Amino acid sequence: MIELLVVAAVIGALWLIGSVVGLMFKLVFGLVGGVFSLLGGLLALGVGLIVLPFAVLAMLPSVLPALLVIGVVWLIARSASRSTPAPAAHGSGPA
């Protein structure tokens, strides 16, 4: 019976050591993967910021008519909503 207990203890100890080693691998590879993910995200952000002006310029011919229509509507609405300021009431100044 003692031999069975020793075998179970050895198997349990090996299982525990394997679990700790697996945990360390998971932790290390998770951290390394996170660092590479952040670096890749920063690289993609940089490339995106470099490409953004070219994409905006490429879309300009298709967006320009809509922008002109929006500008004309805004000018019409702005000029139509101009109101003359109300005259000041007599005796409303500081005494």
TrEMBL record:
* Membrane-crossing segments per the record: 6-25, 32-52, 58-77
Q: Which UniProt keywords apply?
A: Membrane, Transmembrane, Transmembrane helix
Per the record, the domain of life is Bacteria
Kindly provide the name given to this protein in its UniProt entry.
Uncharacterized protein
